UniProtKB/TrEMBL annotation:
Region (Disordered): 1-25
Provenance organism: Digitaria exilis
Domain of life: Eukaryota
InterPro entries, per the entry: RmlC-like_jellyroll, RmlC_Cupin_sf, UGlyAH_Cupin_dom
Protein name: (S)-ureidoglycine aminohydrolase cupin domain-containing protein
UniProt domain (S)-ureidoglycine aminohydrolase cupin: residue ranges: 35-107
Membrane-traversing stretches: none
Length: 112
């Protein structure tokens, strides 16, 4: 079964190539958050504003509050996510966060 048609798939392209995308899992069940150990991750927050971000490692985060529009560099793609979303940013992705409501999140970087 081909998996290229699901925009929420967790597939990532090699760093430096085009086509890196943000994966958003809306309102994952509590069991998934417990399985990932989300509440043991560090917390981070930011006020409203625009911030350029480059991910040197794959990051997974869970938003406790806030709303973000992420504009992917070199693309017309804009991905919106907010409170209750589990979001994965692939290694090598550059984007601009347009934070429209102040963010609080748990996050973790993959060590590989």
């Amino acid at each position: 079964m081909a998996s290229g048609s699901n925009p929420d798939s967790m597939d990532t392209d090699p760093p430096g190539g085009g086509g890196l995308s943000i994966s958003v899992e809306r309102n994952p069940p509590e069991s998934r958050l417990l399985q990932l150990g989300v509440k043991s991750w560090p917390k981070w927050g930011c006020p409203t504003g625009k911030f350029p971000v480059k991910f040197d490692a794959r990051q997974t985060c869970y938003l406790l509050k806030g709303k973000v529009r992420a504009h992917i560099k070199g693309s017309s793609e804009c991905v919106e996510f907010g409170a209750g979303d589990l979001v994965v940013f692939p290694k090598g992705l550059s984007c601009t966060w347009d934070v429209v409501a102040a963010v609080d999140k748990y996050y973790k970087f993959d060590s590989s």
